[in-house]
DNA sequence: CGAATTTGACCCGCGC
DNA sequence: GCGCGGGTCAAATTCG
């Protein structure tokens, strides 16, 4: 981070400051994977059902979402593809301390389920990356490739956390590459990219306009490396008092879906890469595509 | 000096 | 074709 040490709790701009948050943990991933040329687009929509509230844009998923009281809803049963790396970072810390999930809730934000167009860039960047996308020159590599190729939508995984800090530590290093104002929202959306040059994972972070205390994080892509390790303890602090919390249902009882098994305590202190928690017990190991794992 | 953030400009898809 | 909105780039800036 500019000015030093994003992994320190005292990030200059409060960036990596150890967040005081409660993981609301909401996931409303909507990934779309497109193959090449004439390949069909496979849509996967997953999210954790909670009882807090549902605000699901019907068109965003293309499917009917039913609240099965706290369960994990898999709209597109391609389970083998579920597993997550990104999420691990967030979840594992909490997983080590089940209590941290007291405030778990689900919020499906329309913004999170933003449709296609928003995902294109990622692909573009993936393909062209270094190339200046805006280079108007004739054979602009970016353009040529982009047009010639089929856009490959990265897998996306989103969830909500209640936090004072927008950008939470998750075991990976991120570099901010952009920020944009979000329509109909007083809060801007920040764009981050994994600092690993070979890793094309990106993530967007924004605050919910409905509940400013909530941060919506959307990961896109899969890490091609291991995390740098989870931050020292204290990452996730149980949220105790907030209007939001009042509506929330304890994770243990309401969100503990059969498919969402949390790892045993300690697993977190092992420093590790999400894989450690992905095993059969991995929390998100069951909901995020294997490819997203490290 | 290097690394990371800021921020305006640019690109692209989409709806009208 | 045009405007809008989302996403990305990259020069400038900042700071340890």
Brief synopsis:
Residues 163-228 form the WRKY domain. With 294 residues, the protein is of the alpha+beta class.
Question: Helices and strands in order, then pairings?
Answer:
Elements: E1 21-22, E2 30-34, E3 41-48, H1 58-61, E4 72-74, H2 86-96, H3 120-128, H4 141-148, E5 156-163, E6 174-181, E7 188-194, E8 202-207, E9 214-220, H5 243-247, H6 251-255, H7 274-278
Helix pairs in contact: 3-4
The chain binds a DNA duplex (16 and 16 nucleotides) through helix 3, helix 4, strand 6 and strand 7.
Keywords: DNA-binding, Nucleus, Transcription, Transcription regulation
Biased composition (Basic residues): 144-154
Subcellular location: Nucleus
**How far do the termini sit from each other?**
23 Å
Strand ordering within the main sheet: 1-5-9-8-7-6
What count of helical segments does DSSP give?
7
Q: β content, as a range?
A: 15-25%
Helix content: 10-25%
Please give the largest β-sheet: 6 strands, antiparallel
So what's the oligomer here? single chain
Overall mean pLDDT stands at: 46
Estimate the global geometry from the Cα principal axes. globular
Based on CA atoms alone, the radius of gyration comes out at 18 Å
Spans where pLDDT lies below 50 across 5 or more residues? 1-151, 230-294
H/E element order: EEEHEHHHEEEEEHHH
Structural class, by secondary structure, is alpha+beta
Topology, number of strands = 9
Subcellular location: Nucleus
InterPro entries: WRKY_dom, WRKY_dom_sf, WRKY_plant
Domain WRKY: 163-228
Pfam families: WRKY
């Amino acid at each position: 981070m500019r000015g030093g040490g994003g992994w320190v709790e005292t990030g200059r701009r409060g960036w990596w400051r150890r967040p005081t948050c409660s993981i609301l943990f909401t996931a409303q991933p909507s990934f779309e994977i497109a193959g090449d040329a004439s390949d069909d687009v496979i849509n996967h929509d997953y999210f954790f059902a909670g009882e807090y509230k549902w605000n699901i844009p019907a068109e965003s998923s293309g499917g009917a979402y039913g609240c099965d009281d706290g369960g994990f809803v898999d709209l597109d049963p391609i389970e083998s593809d579920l597993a997550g790396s990104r999420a691990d970072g967030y979840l594992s810390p909490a997983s080590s301390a089940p209590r941290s999930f007291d405030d778990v809730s689900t919020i499906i934000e329309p913004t999170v389920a933003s449709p296609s167009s928003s995902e294109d860039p990622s692909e573009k960047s993936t393909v062209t990356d270094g190339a200046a996308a805006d280079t108007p020159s004739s054979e602009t590599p970016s353009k040529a490739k982009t047009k010639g190729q089929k856009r490959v939508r990265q897998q996306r995984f989103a969830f909500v956390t209640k936090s004072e800090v927008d950008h939470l530590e998750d075991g990976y290093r991120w570099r901010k590459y952009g920020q944009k104002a979000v329509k109909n929202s007083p809060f801007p959306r920040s764009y981050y990219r994994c600092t690993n040059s070979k890793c094309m994972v990106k993530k967007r972070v924004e605050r919910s306009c409905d509940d400013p205390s909530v941060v919506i994080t959307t990961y896109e892509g899969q890490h091609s490396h291991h995390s740098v390790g989870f931050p020292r303890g204290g990452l996730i602090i149980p949220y105790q008092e907030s209007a939001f919390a009042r509506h929330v249902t304890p994770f243990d009882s309401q969100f503990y879906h059969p498919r969402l098994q949390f790892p045993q305590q300690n697993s977190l202190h092992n420093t590790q890469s999400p894989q450690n928690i992905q095993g059969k017990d991995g929390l998100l190991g069951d909901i995020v595509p294997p490819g997203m794992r490290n």
